[in-house]
Amino acid sequence: MKNIFFIFLSIVLCSNFYAQTAKTEKPNIIFLFADDQRADAIGASGNEYIHTPNIDKLVKEGFYFKNNYCAGSFSGAVCVASRAMLMTGMHWTKMKSKGGMEKSTTFPKLLSDNGYQTFIIGKWHNGEKTLRQSFQTGKSVFMGGMNKHTEVPLSDLSKGELINNRIDSSNFSSKIFADAAIDYIDNAQKDKPFFLYVAFTTPHDPRNAPESYRQMYYKTPPPLPENFLPLHPFDNGFLFGRDESLAPWPRPRAMIKDQLSEYYALTTYLDTQVGRIYEALKGSSYADNTYIIYTADHGLALGSHGLLGKQNVYEQSMKSPLIIYGPNVPAGQSSDAFSYIFDLYATCLNMAGIIAPSDVDSKDLASIWKGEKTTVRSNVVLPFQRKMRTVNDGRWKLHIYPPSNHILLFDIKNDPGEIVNMANNPKYKDTIVHLTNLLREWQKKENDDLSLFVKDPVSWEADFSLDKFSDKNRILDPIQPEWIREKYFKNHKNSSKK
Q1: Which H or E run includes 260?
Q2: Residue 385: φ, ψ to 5°
Q3: CA nearest 253: which of 224, 296, 217, 221?
Q4: Which of 33, 223, 393, 454 is deepest in the core (most CB within 10 A)?
């Protein structure tokens, strides 16, 4: 009888052990999300002028997607659309026709429904209702789009409510968010897998990185982009606005070089914080069972093509880094395959063993790093508002600007900076027709009703003599620190100290 009892007890204990193991065998996911980071703003991209040793380490130890895109935007605040697409797994055109983000199921919600702890830190720019739907808890949550990095309005998420509202001036935003992430890693519940979402607010301006980081680049400034122009050569429908007002027209070369230095300084400081999170993970019990995803919501022009912002469909504004590190991800490998940021919706769900809903546009990228596929899509389409459409098939990239019927054609494989427009060369007439048809096929699939060519086009010529482009009318953003106001807005009528 005693033997039977011990046999029964052993069965119970083994059952509990395997049940506990089953609970914890799903991997953890740490999602690091930068703000406004160009794809070439990491050393691993071949940029020898920027210092990003920790992000480069993720590339060396993980898998690097070299052609990762934000899929355009319905808004001048491109980050809103990018983050909404990431969370819902859908192109913004389809998402809008389905009732918007609030009527979609976010992937953190699906993770939560399947036993994950979901925790948010940092920027959330998609409304409080969707925040509560997506995450169980959070710390140091920033609900806005941009703010002073040294005076960040923050809240914590608990029981579906934002609490502990405060202005945190204890440190720079990137360090505050990294501190919260490290604290979470150190104290996460061990009986459930976790999804830790850390959305930084850098390298988005204001570009007031700590002084030592700025001085690093002032002493050895990066060169201007190869495709730098003092003025954009035509009216793309978004030549004027907050981002485009951060320097006068024509763009002064010395000023843009200084702004690049400050942007690189923010990126390097962000890289330092990424390194701290990485080291915290490596020193934890989760090290062997945790993915790290590093990406950004979109890029930034910073002088390329005479533009400063992200409200355009050029490569520098729509591309961002994407690195995936973790269990069974091959180290030091990369792919030129196309990916969208919103492909991380299906990819994260796949990591957790969850099948993505059938109506999303997101593709699981795991098949690429596993070597099962070389690509998950044959082209990328980047729609911006009702002003711009572009398609890239890997060799050619076509831009169409419907209000003016202006088109650009680039041999994107051999001209990645989009410098030489070949649209007027009759040799490529069939190429333009082919790419236009690809765009129309995509429009039909994604419920995009914009006419690519209009009957009464407006002029595509840009008139920089207009008063709105005068220095006195540049938009002075109140969140910019005083030294930036003095440095870049000297002639602005509102540049007096406040």
Answers
A1: helix 253-282
A2: 45, -140
A3: 224
A4: 33
Strand pairing partners for 324?
63, 293
Give yes or no for residue 497 having a pLDDT over 60: no
Q: State which amino acid sits at residue 310.
A: K
Contacts of 194 (CB under 8 A, 6+ apart): 28, 29, 116, 117, 118, 119, 184, 188
* 241-281 confidence digits (pLDDT tens): 999 999 999 999 999 999 999 999 999 999 999 999 999 99
Place of tokens 């030091």: 332
Q: β-pairing, 117-123 with 137-142?
A: parallel
| Tokens found for residue 64 | 């690097």
- Select from 197, 189, 175, 236 the least CA-distant residue to 399: 236
Query: Look-up: residue for tokens 């940092």?
Result: 122
Q: Please give the domain boundaries of the chain with CATH numbers for all domains.
A: 26-378 (3.40.720.10), 384-446 (3.30.1120.10)
Give CA–CA dist 210/485, Å, rounded.
17
Residue 233: HSE in the Cβ half-sphere, 13 Å Cα cutoff: 12
Q: Are 125 and 145 in contact (CB under 8 A)?
A: yes
Which residue has 């009318």 as its token pair? 473
